[in-house]
Amino acid sequence: MQQAGLARNLAAFSRFLEAASFSQGSVLNMAAVARDCGVRPKVVEDYFAILEDLLIAVRLPVFTRRAKRRLVAHPKFYFFDAGVFRAIRPRGPLDVAEEVEGPALETLLLQQLRALNDYRGLGYTLTTGGPAGATRSTSYSTASGASSRWR
Asked: Rounded to whole angstroms, how far apart are CA atoms 139 and 141?
């Protein structure tokens, strides 16, 4: 019931869904999503928890086994279905097709991997990054203070 109370402010939740759609297939930045929808970061965390509890979205954790550096441990965010993502994602006149189609294709691939994993009972845990994958290191910072070097 607490989650239903959080979604009572439908205008804020609607803005949250649009802001979350811009995070599809990318590293999740709660503060940026909160700033985009004009609510507190704690509310955004609760909204993401609601989406996960309702099986509308999934967060892929960062691969952490044998990390040699301190890594930025932000998960990647995906709506459970590419069609849901494409329906929620607003489009503007200056949008490039790859900005929408790339994450949609990545979501479709994730859907297939999750379905195969469940169907065959493989029991794998899907994660982002990996020993040779794209995990961000905190050893290099830009002028804004954000880590931007990919390993």
From this structure: 7
> 72 and 140 in contact (C-beta within 8 Å)?
no
CA pair distance 51, 6, nearest whole angstrom: 12
Angle formed by the axes of helices 41-53 and 30-37, nearest 10°? 100
First to last CA, the chain: 42
Q: Which amino acid does the sequence have at 137?
A: S
Return the C-alpha torsion angle 113, 30, 71, 26, nearest 10: 40
Residue 42 confidence (pLDDT) = 93
Label residue 26 exposed, middle or buried (CB < 10 Å: 0-12, 13-18, 19+).
Answer: middle
pLDDT in tens, 37-83: 889 999 999 999 999 999 888 888 876 666 566 655 778 888 888 88
Q: Greatest CA span in the chain, whole angstroms?
A: 47
- 76: closest CA among 54, 109, 98, 43? 109
